[in-house]
Amino acid sequence: MRVVSGNYGGRPLKTLAGKTTRPTTDKVKGAIFNMIGPYFEGGRVLDLFAGSGGLAIEAISRGMDEAVLIEKDRAAQAVILENIKMTKETEKFQLLKMPAERALSHLTGQFDLILLDPPYAKEQIVQNLTFLQEQNLLTQAVTVVCETDKSVELPEQIGSLVLTKQKIYGISKISIYEF
């Protein structure tokens, strides 16, 4: 695993041993950012189920200003902190060490990019995106990236967010929502 492109491009990322997280492969990560960017001129990113932190770090590497990462697993938190340290720009990252449901109520400001790769995809994605909209935590130009198993069917619309792109890469399905 590595950072695919941008300021940190080519730098290695640590991942968690075992099956508690399933890190996004470099190929899928590259494909995701080609679908939505591939580069950004600032903004805030929220990685709600951060795992190793690879997606948020990739977003910062490609031009986002600030990332909030949420992860409840202690071993994954340690890996995220190591990966953030590798960037040498730790001030751009904030790690909330708690379950996503609890962290959502602690969030302030608005986000331009939302990264969702939850363990139980459909139910959690719909719930989380509904809450983020209700709390006015999304900018009007927000892009939401959902990574799920290819068998998961997400709705065409979640609140005011509309499914704009969807692609399958191996066992993963990437769904993009926008206002």
Description:
The protein is of the alpha/beta class. It has a single domain, classed as 3-Layer(aba) Sandwich (Rossmann fold). Helix content is 29%, strand content 27%. The protein is built from five helices and eight strands. The protein has helices spanning 26-36, 54-61, 74-87, 100-104, 121-134; strands spanning 44-47, 66-70, 93-96, 111-116, 138-149, 157-158, 161-169, 172-178. It has an eight-stranded mixed sheet. β6 (157-158) and β7 form a beta hairpin. The longest helix is centred in the middle third of the chain and has 14 residues, at 74-87. The protein starts with 25 loop residues before the first helix and ends with a strand. The mean pLDDT is 93.
> How many helices?
5
Give the tally of β-strands: 8
CATH H-level superfamily title: Vaccinia Virus protein VP39
Based on secondary structure, the structural category is alpha/beta
Tell me the overall shape: globular
CATH class: Alpha Beta
State the end-to-end CA separation: 32 Å
CATH architecture annotation name: 3-Layer(aba) Sandwich
Strand content: 25-35%
- What fraction, in percent, of the residue positions are helical? 25-40%
Unreliable stretches: none
Radius of gyration: 15 Å
